[in-house]
Amino acid sequence: MTIRKIITEPDVLLRKISNPIEKFDKTLKTLMDDMLETMYKAPGIGLAAIQVGVLRRVIVIDLSKNGEKKNPLYLVNPKIIFKSQTLATYEEGCLSLPGQFAEIQRPSECHLEYLDYDGKPQELKANGLLATCIQHEIDHLDGILFIDYLSKLKKDFIIKKLSKQKKDIERIVV
Ligand code: ZN
Predict the structure, then answer these.
(1) Are 30 and 38 in contact (CB under 8 A)?
(2) Phi and psi angles of residue 118, each rounded to the nearest 5 degrees, phi first
(3) How high does pLDDT run on average in the chain?
(4) Residue 143 has what pLDDT?
(5) Cα 140 to averaged position of ligand 1 atoms, centre (Å)
(6) Which ranges of the chain does DSSP label H, i.e. alpha helix?
(7) Backbone φ, ψ for residue 141 (5° rounding)
(8) 168 CA distance to ligand 1 centroid (A)?
(9) pLDDT number for residue 168
(10) Is the pLDDT of residue 172 over 90?
(11) Taking residues 39-63, what's their average pLDDT?
(12) If you measure from the C-alpha of residue 95 to the centroid of ligand 1, how many angstroms do you get, rounded to a whole number?
């Protein structure tokens, strides 16, 4: 398994719409294995393929706590079929928006259809942290970031800060 590079905002790739998976082949399994390793290493609780630069509708999630048995969830071509009226608020962060956090409101429950690691169709009813995490990750597949739910002022401020950070990191003199 390989740790892949996580792309960060601003990056045009993060705004692209990912394409569905059509074939469950070795390349896909390698991608899912690499994504899981990359997410654990980061560390994060969810990662979408686009965050490692792959425009495919693939997500990995693991909400297990430190020291608990790992509990990876692989979502291929996930589709939300129900969202509750009731909302829940979490302070969200994102591996593609390093150091940025904001309180975001989303439906507290969602139901989805997806294909699992082996390509088998599955259904899942999620609530709480899992429901929020799934919606955050599916947003990535549609080119949406959590900062899109903030006011334009707050969003622009965060993007400006991140582009400055990026420049600072990439500027080297050798
Ligand atoms: Zn994210």
Answers:
(1) no
(2) -100, 5
(3) 95
(4) 98
(5) 7
(6) 26-41, 128-141, 152-170
(7) -65, -20
(8) 22
(9) 75
(10) no
(11) 97
(12) 6
Check if the beta carbon of residue 59 is closer than 8 Å to that of residue 48.
yes
Active site residue 137: yes
Average pLDDT over residues 16-30: 97
pLDDT of 123 reads 98
The active-site residue, picked from 68, 123, 137, 170, is 137
CATH of 12-170 given 1.10.565.10, 3.30.700.20, 3.30.460.10, 3.90.45.10: 3.90.45.10
> Which residue has tokens 């045009």?
12
Which tokens belong to 118? 């082996």
pLDDT at 105: 97
The full DSSP string for 77-106 is EEEEEEE-SSEEEEEE--TTSTT--EEEEE
Structure-block tokens of residue 41: 């290493």
CA of 45 to the centre of ligand 1 (A): 9
Residue 78 sits at the vertex; the CA angle it makes with 48 and 81, to the nearest 5 degrees, is 135
Domain boundaries, the chain: 12-170
For 59-83, letters b (16+ CB in 10 Å) and e give bbbbeeeeeeeeebbbbbbbebeeb
Global pTM value: 0.94
